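chain below, 179 aa
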Amino acid sequence: MGGDRQRKSNRILGADSMIFVTIGSMFPFDRLVRAVDRWAGHANYSAVSMQIGAGTYHPKNAKWVRTLPPDEFSNAIRNCDLMVAHLGMGSIISAMQAQKPVILLPRKMQLGEATSDHQLHGMEWLRGRPGVWIAEDESQMEELLGSFVDGKLNQAIEAASQYASVEMIEKVKKFVHAI
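prediction:
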């Protein structure tokens, strides 16, 4: 980590605020892990924990593990103040169920991060939802993280219902048929 330099924590949420990063379980996502780690180093921010999966990049400015058992994963989400993830439905639903704001970075097929660009298509569907922010690239991820710790992204995420609305079902149908 950063040696003797004093590390910042979230100025708005207090010293114990936590950012939890998860990459999902299917593929590594070093681009996301590297972007958040780089931001944490530049921002001198220590309250970051990551689940990095099988990636080859090892964070230098955050605590990390490769995988978490389901109960520890649930606790990490419940105890974080912000979740950062790929644009996967499991991650989005987890954030909504825990009512945690989330910053999402879509995987890109051209970079070997996914087998299709379905996450890029899902970006537009999620854009503008309360408590959900989409980073289109690594620099935008770093900007959004900075805005969050500065208190500029303070919307609560919509709670997930265990039942989908008719509108949601129709949107999912259109999305699935589009890919």
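The longest strand covers residues 82-86. The two ends are 42 Å apart (CA to CA).
thats it, cya
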